[in-house]
């Protein structure tokens, strides 16, 4: 303790039981913040930054990212929960609730003299049994469009209101199915989420192609082309800066003109190669389809009605920035939920049914665990019931 004080005189030091109590208190505090978020009837939270910016959300991942968490244990729990969101796309709020409840149940036994290590052994045994139960209760089925719509709807209804969730569900499922390739992993980067501050959130739609947030690059370009060939390339058609900062001294204006012509010729050569390729591939056809729409002061280019699109765009519309951000967050979670369902090929019951099934199995499994670790198994089972309890308290069940 003296060494810590020497390094940081302002440091707060707590020993054993007191330190454990502080950590459990931090976890339960985080749990209390997110408790009312769970489920489709969860409440919205308003976050106000130091600069006065306002964000409305009920997404646990967004809340954990935006909140300024000072306590190290609470910060660690937030990182664990957000890591799960990065992998699975959802479950952040449930994760925090279960962690907080596990520590709460552990605190009850520790206060009666049980060593934390014994509880940890019970938790480990309960985790192994829970994974076995998961394999038993999961429903393996063909992931047809109807099933995927149910999966997406379950995720989206926890993020936005019911009417909007039902509208977004089909767009999200169709977007994933459009980019899906047989026997290959689904790449969600092929689904672009483009926002447009225009009309209402109910005008959000799936574009089977691309939407670019700019119009024509030149006023003389055609505004509409049907049945077009589209070339995508990774070379620039603009003047490029050198990697090393350098300067030039001209002896005359003629030398400067020569440099400008050389730069221009470099770009013109690239353009001529593209035109040459166009003549070979497209022949003399005048096919194409490019539409440039102007919404207010902003212009958008639509490339749609593609025969077999391998990249699609979810065009999010809304009257303000808050609505657009909320829909984008919901869509990301919905996309990953559909992707996971397709890749796993199985689903489990929702609304706390899975947690109740695991808790029941753990209670029956407890007598098979040796020694006082049984108390840890029971604590794990009781902690899982926090999910159906919270859903019931928020009028979901």
Automatic annotation (TrEMBL):
- Identify the keywords attached in UniProt to this record, alphabetized: ATP-binding, Chaperone, Nucleotide-binding
Under the heading Gene3D superfamilies, the entry gives:
GroEL (3.50.7.10), GroEL-like equatorial domain (1.10.560.10), TCP-1-like chaperonin intermediate domain (3.30.260.10)
Q: Which domain of life is it from?
A: Eukaryota
Supply the InterPro entries for this chain.
Answer: Chaperone_TCP-1, Chaperonin_TCP-1_CS, Cpn60/GroEL/TCP-1, GroEL-like_apical_dom_sf, GROEL-like_equatorial_sf, TCP-1-like_intermed_sf
Q: Which GO terms describe its molecular function?
A: ATP binding; ATP hydrolysis activity; ATP-dependent protein folding chaperone; unfolded protein binding
The yes or no answer to whether the keyword Kinase is present is no
Into which family does the record put it? Belongs to the TCP-1 chaperonin family.
Query: What protein name does the entry list?
Result: T-complex protein 1 subunit zeta-like
**Species in which this protein is naturally found:** Sinocyclocheilus rhinocerous
Q: List the lineage, top down.
A: Eukaryota, Metazoa, Chordata, Craniata, Vertebrata
